[in-house]
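Researcher: For the record, we're logging two predictions in this thread. I'll number them. Prediction 1 follows.
Model: Prediction 1, sequence and structure:
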Amino acid sequence: MPTPRKPDLRLLALLAAAAVLVGHALYFDFVNDDAYISFRYADNLVRHGELVYNPGEKVEGYTNFLWTIQMAGVLALGGDPVLWSRIFGIMFGVGGLLLVARFVARFRGEARPVDAVGPLWLAAAPAFACWSTGGLETQQFTFLATLGCTQYLLERRAPAGERAFPWSGVFFALSALSRPEGMLFFGLAGLHRLGGLIRARTLPERSDWLWGAGFAAVFVPYYAWRWTYYGWPFPNTYYVKAGSESFWRPGAMYAWTWVRDHHLYLWPPLIFAARAVRGFWPFFGLVVLAICTHVMKVGGDFMGLHRFLVPLMPLLAIALVFGVEALLERARERALPRAVPVALGVALSAGLAVRAVQIDQWNMQTGSENGVDRIGWLKMFEGQCRAIGLYLRDNAPPDASIATTAAGIIPYYSRLYTLDVLGLNDEYIAHEVPARGSRPGHTKSAPESYLLQKQIDYLVHHPTMTPQPVRQGGGGMAAKGYEWKSVKVPGLEPPYWSFWQRKR
């Protein structure tokens, strides 16, 4: 009688991790207003042949070229980017789980069931699951940055005579096309590579030059095109955020809440236990320290659950696998009963799972704290702005214009000329208006004189929604050719939307 095959515990655990991530991501299941900015650029590319926010105005108000082009492909094929952005986000998230398991198996030379510990933690982590939806490029960038980092470490580990083409340079370039921080990951890998050459007291080898050439072959043509097309060396969003007050305080709070909510204070003992694993920790420490410093310097984000730190989480998951494996090895050396580490692991996992559920529920409430909007508020706002955008599409003249701080959903659905009040998609505001305050992405605002000069028809600003019509006194904008209106919008909750409309 043939011996029955043992179940592949590693495969089963990885499938479980993928299933957990899909379910966890669908709990959030939202698309943020900022994602619709990319959708608008993609829509204008498909309909008008211009990668612009407003046709005829070449302003680079996005920082996710690869994602925007992917959404343009969806639109060109007749798909809905609102739906497909979530599908692709979850697919990239699952891909990130597989990259973690693939790397640890190849790094040590064999696959083990413990490889699934990292993917299971990622699937349960609120930030990683949340930003598998959201409509943004977060998981695309995380996947490409992780692919670059893990491939780079595997290339460095290979014997000199067995090294194939260093594809990690190409992967880092693709990540830089997904988000500008991809250049930082590439630079950190280059610094790590340079350190290795200095320690070995050798000159760069052929593989080093090929690595840099692989990055340049992809990134340099793209950069030359975008500088030529938009006329500036950096995206417009960079100039919007330049010259602001110090972001260190909100940035430090942003990083601390990420550490607290994901229990990352448990990682140092794990790293210490697995310190004998060679070839991983110096690069890991360099990347984590540099990216955390960068995110704190720019002030973190105004959206909840730490999307700017999600790209670090696969590396943390790899560190978790090495740490757990080292602790299990010590338990075996001390002849501890197998039930002891298993019981401790189950108890700790259960506690972390309960805490993750609490964090999920708290973040799905509507509200904002310290300038950071919860996911529940972002989801509610998406529905409200969609109703307003569709109302304008059906009721505003086709040549009308709007001015709003909600520069994504309303402009995308209305398809009207839009002045982005916060300047992310406006060259004049980005370069000429001084910065004030310390909330990321909200430090510049269009002056009233600029709105009047542009003869904007609908002054939306931040949309005002109320249960009853709102009355507004005379003076102010009324003396400048505008009238105050409160209209009942189908599908809007609360049902009344108020705004200033220019008298034509």
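Researcher: Logged. Prediction 2.
Model: Prediction 2, sequence and structure:
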Amino acid sequence: MIPYGRQFIDKDDIDAVVDVLQSDWLTTGPSVGEFEAALAACVNAKEAVAVSSGTAALHAAMYALKIAPGDEVIVPAMTFAATANCVVYQGATPIFVDVDPETLLIRPEAVEAALTPRTRAVIAVDYSGHPADYDRLRAITAQHGIALVADACHALGGSYKERPVGSLADLSTFSFHPVKHIATGEGGMIVTDDPRLAERMRRFRNHGITTDHRQREKQGSWFYEMVDLGYNYRITDLQCALGLSQLKKLPLFLKQRRNIARAYDEAFAASAHIKPLAVAADVDHAYHLYVIRLQSADLAIDRNGLFGILRQNGIGVNVHYIPVHLHPFYRRQFGTGPGLCPAAETAYGQILSIPMFAAMTAAQTREVIDRLKAAVAENRR
């Protein structure tokens, strides 16, 4: 099976983790700060806070902004559930808005239409690795005095109008799950230029406590105070050492992903039935995912059937995502359902994510192309 995504780990990565295993600090140690500083420099941000997952990063961002019951946060329907869940964790209400049918990115016009006096923030999702339209989103949020958060978990290494993802919003979140651009096993990061927000998130990841163990050890003190209600969202030094090693390879990983995307673009350019998502001219796409839309009006099999055929033939396709407002929890808890975001709902029935990962070979890329084209052709007969 050629998976839709997977990590690439080499000897440098293994050696970095072993070095930490042989050190005095397995968690709350020096590797955490080193990883934070390296990633902040990579995305041109002043502050970075490492946490245990991309979901924890989103939750910390909502906490830092003091999102609370009675507040509303606008989120796109086409995303992973965590983008909306982080709002619910704070007792607030996610307001789902539709996406552009060509890119599946949040529509600024939809954001503007959804604003109410209770709106406190907008979360833009850089779906598949394509940065959202941050200039237009920033203009809206600035005009109304609300926060702009980038769920950039797909887009590390991408850029918008020559500005790196991570420098485009008040807070930007990243994920280091194994299928992402760099892997720490699980792990996440929030970057910001606001030191007050960064400090709130550092306490939040550590139970709401003012200092961690290593800081108290340096001070020769046992004393600490819990000033907020936080969580244990700490990341380990093992993970951060791996992240540091992986980050050094990010330019190579991005180059390889973009080469694969270019091969797919060329292969499907003339197809009437396999349509890649559009890419704006003013972005550098990070290609966490490569998503196609099946123009299936005259096919004898639907997307779900094609999914099964490709899986049976060793192509690890996936679907990203079920629109969040269609999940049973959101239907039950917030009364959402079909018809709320028609572009996202239509796209959901047509999209497939095809294999995309840095270690993918040219032969594997060609196999994906050939098997996909053959499956589509076979099911048009």
